[in-house]
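Session log. Operator J.P. requested a structure for one protein chain; no other inputs attached. Running the standard single-chain path with token output.
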Amino acid sequence: MQAEGIQRLLQTIAENGIPCCVVGEVALNYYNVPVVIHELELCVPAAELTRANEIFVSEPHMLAPENEKTYNLYTIHKQGVPRFRYLPEPSSYVVLFPDDCLGLAPLKKNILHPKRDEDGAEYSREISDVIPASKIAETPIPLLGPLFSGQCSRYLETNYPMLAIAAEQLVDGMDLDEEWCKQHMSASTPETLSFALTLVAGKASRIDYFSSNTVTCFIPDEQERQRLLRVPGRNDGTS
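Structure written below.
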């Protein structure tokens, strides 16, 4: 989905007074994970999910409900949530998730709000390839702590593989370490923290033998690591 479509759909929800943020592959791009965006995934408060769905249904020129889908190991975590075809780009889809399904409740507390202005802020090259630099700061993004913790805890609850993969990718995209996990996952269960630390411990093993990377499989060197430490949302809040 093009950046214009992402902003248009976010605006449609925001104009109706519903808190909303991007999750899924766009959020992974924001936190320096090189994944292709197959579907735009948005998150709203659980109490507003029905209304958000109704708002999208009321936009037939822009969105068409897509209720039938065959799920597999990589998409099973999307089962049961509203899904729409984005008609201006017929091959693009948007999915609505409730915040309590992703560990982001209450959503208002756990998102980086649009139009933030932070001195020295940096953004990953992955998100810059998706959203123009001038628009990144206007895009509501989940804070990394709750997003990562939510992926870990939800995986332990459901055993959905894509949740574990996404959590692992966040570790490598942002070079999360034990200190960061203990600081930003203080409200997590011991089991969730233990799983997170297991992912952290495996960082070095995920660097390909033929790669020149020295930090993680997604971060080539210390200079880039230092730049990514300034990504807004990385060090904000606790889960």
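Operator note: The longest strand covers residues 92-98.
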